[in-house]
């Protein structure tokens, strides 16, 4: 199957170009607002290529029908939501049904038992957190490529190697149009939700195969930024379901003024460093409580320190600008 990969990559690029044409005709664009990190209208829904990659993997025998159907389900509902906003009920229903399909797949050959509620909650939670993190050019696709590359290096994931490569090729095709100063397209909910669900599926599958939950550190940065921001917003009394610009990556890209691609590369690069540290220095052959706890405490403290220092610096800068404006 390996000789087919260049043709599959070209197919994904062609599919995206065709989608851009259709999106322009039907007005599937993301218009900037006060909460956006972009300043011009951009085609939305380019992440449909991720759904296409899973369906293609299923057709070629590299993915199960449960996974393909689950991604088709959430991808279809999310695509419709990108075109015309939907009520919460059909979206939530699609997510729950798709997660149930993934549990059916994960349960083949493994006894999940009492772990089913926890896995269900983890998949739903991860999908939504990943979707929240899709806010600047390049961040979602580069982070996904790091995750997929890390999965590909784990021997226990040999059976999923073709699926991982299919997804990676679709990410590379999408990255060509997204990882740039002025993106040609955004992933949209269809992209971020479907990609999140596949990555979550691969993570749970890996933990089941190895019995080692430390592989969750492959998602460290996204997990930290999403969860800590959610907790802080909750304690500030904000509506956590409304859009916002208070993730660390948003402060870096918006208030600090760093280029989107620089922030995206930094997130992907740091996560790659973390993954490499665990794979080749700490070790993932067995779960170790002490290194896991110490590592988690260290990254949380470092994250909070960087976040607080950045916010103080931004507040000081804004105060200085206000002071100049009032005296000018």
From TrEMBL:
Cited InterPro entries: Glycosyl_transferase_4
Q: State the Gene Ontology BP annotations.
A: cell wall macromolecule biosynthetic process; cell wall organization; lipopolysaccharide biosynthetic process
The membrane spanning regions, by residue number, are: 6-29, 49-74, 94-124, 136-155, 161-179, 186-208, 214-235, 256-281, 287-306
Q: Which UniProt keywords apply?
A: Cell membrane, Magnesium, Membrane, Metal-binding, Transferase, Transmembrane, Transmembrane helix
Q: A GO molecular-function term, please? A: metal ion binding
Check the UniProt entry and state the signal peptide residues, or none: none
Superkingdom, natural source: Bacteria
Instruction: Tell me which Pfam families the record gives.
Output: Glycos_transf_4 (PF00953)
Q: Where does Mg(2+) bind?
A: 131, 189
Where the protein is mainly located, per its record? membrane
Localization in the cell? Cell membrane
What this protein needs as a cofactor is:
Mg(2+)
Membrane topology classification: Multi-pass membrane protein
One cellular component (GO) term of this entry = plasma membrane
Protein name per UniProt = UDP-N-acetylmuramyl pentapeptide phosphotransferase/UDP-N-acetylglucosamine-1-phosphate transferase
Native source organism of the sequence: Cyclobacterium lianum
């Amino acid at each position: 199957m390996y000789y087919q990969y260049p043709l599959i990559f070209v197919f994904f690029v062609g599919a995206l170009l065709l989608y851009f044409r259709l999106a322009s005709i039907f007005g599937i664009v993301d218009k900037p607002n006060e909460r956006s990190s972009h300043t011009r209208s951009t085609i939305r829904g380019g992440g449909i290529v991720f759904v296409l990659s899973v369906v293609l993997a299923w057709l070629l025998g590299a993915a199960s029908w449960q996974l393909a159907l689950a991604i088709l389900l959430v991808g279809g509902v999310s695509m419709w939501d990108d075109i015309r906003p939907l009520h919460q009920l059909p979206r939530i229903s699609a997510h729950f049904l798709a997660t149930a399909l993934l549990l059916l797949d994960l349960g083949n050959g493994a006894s999940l038992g009492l772990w089913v509620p926890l896995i269900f909650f983890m998949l739903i939670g991860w999908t939504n957190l990943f979707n929240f993190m899709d806010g600047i050019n390049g961040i979602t696709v580069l982070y996904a490529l790091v995750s997929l590359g890390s999965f590909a290096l784990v021997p226990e994931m040999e059976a999923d190697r073709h699926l991982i490569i299919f997804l990676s090729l679709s990410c590379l095709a999408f990255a060509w149009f997204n990882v740039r100063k002025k993106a040609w397209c955004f992933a949209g909910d269809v992209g971020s939700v479907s990609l999140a669900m596949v990555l979550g599926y691969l993570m749970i599958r890996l933990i089941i195969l190895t019995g080692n939950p430390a592989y969750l550190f492959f998602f460290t940065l996204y997990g930290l930024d999403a969860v800590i921001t959610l907790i802080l917003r909750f304690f500030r009394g904000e509506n956590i379901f409304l859009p916002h610009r208070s993730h660390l990556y948003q402060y870096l890209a918006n208030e600090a003024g760093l280029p989107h691609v620089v922030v995206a590369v930094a997130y992907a690069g740091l996560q790659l460093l973390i993954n490499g540290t665990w794979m080749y220095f700490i070790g993932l052959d067995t779960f170790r409580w002490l290194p896991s706890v110490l590592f988690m405490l260290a990254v949380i403290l470092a994250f909070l320190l960087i976040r607080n220092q950045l916010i103080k610096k931004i507040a000081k800068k804004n105060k200085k600008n206000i002071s100049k404006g009032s005296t000018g």
